[in-house]
Design brief:
Pfam families: SQS_PSY. The protein is an all-alpha fold. It has 2 domains: 133 residues, Orthogonal Bundle (Farnesyl Diphosphate Synthase); 225 residues, Orthogonal Bundle (Farnesyl Diphosphate Synthase). It is built from 23 helices and 2 strands. The chain has a two-stranded antiparallel ribbon. A hairpin with a 2-residue loop joins strand 1 and strand 2. The structure holds ligand D61 and magnesium ion. Ligand D61 binds next to helix 7, helix 12, helix 14 and helix 19.
Length: 463
């Protein structure tokens, strides 16, 4: 029955209107990359995707397919090692976006990338804390690469509201597991922690800033290099050390940097309001000062036209990294590494399309639907799909591009450049829209029937 349903659902998805990308390989990546709760919240998730049947297909497939993942296979080993178990618990506690893709990496890399994450998350928890006295913060950031070699070190000076403070309170477990990695992994991680800590300390001390604002676009690029581009460098080195990828991946620093820049800059656009409320400001003055005098004006009534133009200018800046990201992904050979790298990138392009010309960014935290995210996760298993997904969202951005916007031409050109790259390097990728077919209506009926069933179960539980 389940198999039948799956086949049926795959057929349904092939007939959805406006569907510009299709899953060409059902190589499954499962595990709780996104945790789907039961009943009412699951129901909300399904309802949010009601107008997107392919997302409902993805959600059901994801929810009901049996667990058979790299991480599940290794849970037993982890359970016998309390320190390692605690590290993976910390990974899932501190990362919504990266925990599951890290846990799904092949054995040769999983622990190294997990520890890389936890070490940099520890460093970032010091950087983000606005309650730490600046001299103390600076000293910690600059010496963190040495601290990670001090067995037993931990830290409880973070402010009570710092979201990941518990990680540093028990940091001795992270250090123990870091020291259990093979030395070549340790060297890569410590080297990146050194460079990132120094970069964060410079910015915390007002370098490259005027008052609290990041000044030039080049300062913005440098900041994103320190906090995310360097992660790209380190990951490429870890891939090479593990032997799962060739050393070539680690040779082109520019494209490794772009992988991080694309993720970090997209987050910085999406998090405008949250950062403003917390007293942080990452958008470069060189961009926003063209539109408003005060950064906070962007969220105020009466500034909508300026705010929209400013948002386009920020999105344009991010789009410049896309060709490098596609080059990077096309070089990868190991399936688990490919999934690990591709999933965050497709989430970012989907987020970029969502924020583009969307003034809600200035009013609330905008997020892609869970159904959309799950669909992207299931599809991001090969380069053909990833390119098709990028094209889909670029097409979406083109459609929303406003001829009256001052950056209209530049955005068109940036998208044209990406298209050109795809046509030159991936000419076989076919992303023609599937025509809407009458058969879809009976499929919709089936989906409605499934939803009615879910409603029924929920209703009976509530009685
Ligand atoms: C392939 C796959 C993943 C990649 C990649 C290539 C290249 C770069 C990155 C991931 C890094 C992306 C960073 C985007 C998210 N931004 C943050 O987490 C900000 O903190 C930056 C400093 C700490 C970086 C920690 C990190 C993040 C992701 C990783 C990783 C390390 C190690 C391995 C894999 C992924 C942001 O933090 C928000 C928060 O506190 O939650 C901030 O403070 O700006
Ligand atoms: Mg930070």
């Amino acid at each position: 029955m389940k198999l039948y349903l799956n086949r049926l659902l795959i057929r349904i998805s092939a007939r959805v209107p406006r569907k510009l990308w299709t899953i060409t390989q059902t190589h499954r990546l499962k595990g709780e990359i996104i945790s789907l709760p039961l009943f009412s919240t699951m129901l909300n998730t399904l309802l949010a995707s009601l107008r997107h049947p392919a997302e409902i297909e993805a959600l059901l497939k994801y929810k009901f397919s049996p667990p058979n993942t790299n991480f599940n296979r290794n849970k037993k080993i982890i359970a016998n090692n309390p320190t390692k178990k605690k590290c993976y618990d910390f990974l899932f506690l501190t990362s919504r976006s990266f925990a599951a893709v890290i846990a799904e990496l092949d054995d040769e890399l999983r622990d190294a990338v997990c520890l890389f994450y936890l070490i940099l998350r520890g460093l970032d928890t010091i950087e983000d804390d606005m309650t730490l006295p600046l001299p103390r913060k600076t000293e910690l950031l600059r010496s963190f690469h040495k601290i990670i070699y001090q067995r037993g070190w931990n830290f409880d000076e973070n402010g009570p509201n710092e979201k990941d403070r518990v990680l540093l309170v028990d940091y001795q477990v992270v250090i123990d597991e870091f020291l259990a990695l093979k030395p070549a992994f340790q060297t890569v991680i410590a080297d990146i922690a050194h460079k990132m800590g120094d970069g964060m300390a410079d910015y915390a001390n007002g370098e490259h800033r005027v008052n609290t604002a990041i000044e030039k676009i080049s300062d913005f690029d440098l900041y994103c290099h320190y906090v995310a581009g360097l992660v790209g460098y380190g990951l490429s080195d870890l891939f090479a050390v593990s032997g799962l990828e060739s050393a070539e991946v680690a040779n082109s620093k520019k494209i490794s940097n772009s992988m991080g820049q694309f993720l970090q800059k997209t987050n910085i656009i999406r998090d405008y309001l949250e950062d403003l409320v917390d007293g942080r400001q990452f958008w470069p003055r060189e961009i926003w000062a063209n539109y408003v005098e005060d950064f906070a004006d962007l969220s105020k009534p009466g500034f909508e036209v300026k705010a929209q133009a400013c948002l386009s200018a920020m999105v344009l800046n991010v789009l410049e990294h896309v060709p490098d990201c596609l080059v990077y992904l096309s070089q990868l050979r190991n399936q688990s590494v490919f999934n690990f790298c591709a999933i965050p990138q497709v989430m970012a392009i989907a987020t970029l399309a969502l924020v583009f010309n969307n003034l809600e960014v200035y009013r609330r935290n905008v997020k892609i639907r869970k159904g959309e995210a799950v669909r992207l996760i299931l599809a991001s298993t090969n380069m053909g799909n990833v390119v098709a997904i990028f094209r889909y969202y670029l097409y979406d951005i083109s459609g929303k591009n406003d001829p009256l916007d001052p950056n209209f031409m530049k955005i068109s050109i940036a998208i044209g450049k990406i298209e050109q790259w795809i046509e030159t390097n991936m000419p076989q990728t076919n992303v023609v829209a599937k025509p809407y077919s009458a058969a879809a209506s009976s499929s919709h009926l089936l989906l409605l029937a499934i939803l009615a069933g879910v409603f029924g179960v929920l209703y009976s539980r509530l009685q």
